[in-house]
Amino acid sequence: MTREELPNLAESKLTALVVDDNFVNQSIHQKLLARLGIQNDVVCNGKEAVDAHCSGRNYDLILMDMDMPIMNGIQATKRLREMGIESKIAGVTTRANEGEKKEFMEAGLNDFQEKPLTISKLLSILHKLDFYVQT
Amino acid sequence: MQRQVALIKQSLFDQGYLDEQFMELEELQDDANPNFVEEVSALYFKDSARLINNIDQALERGSFDFNRLDSYMHQFKGSSTSIGASKVKAECTKFREYCRAGNAEGCLRTFHQLKKEHSTLRKKLEHYFQLARQAGPKETARRPK
Question: ipTM of this complex > 0.90?
Answer without folding.
Answer: no
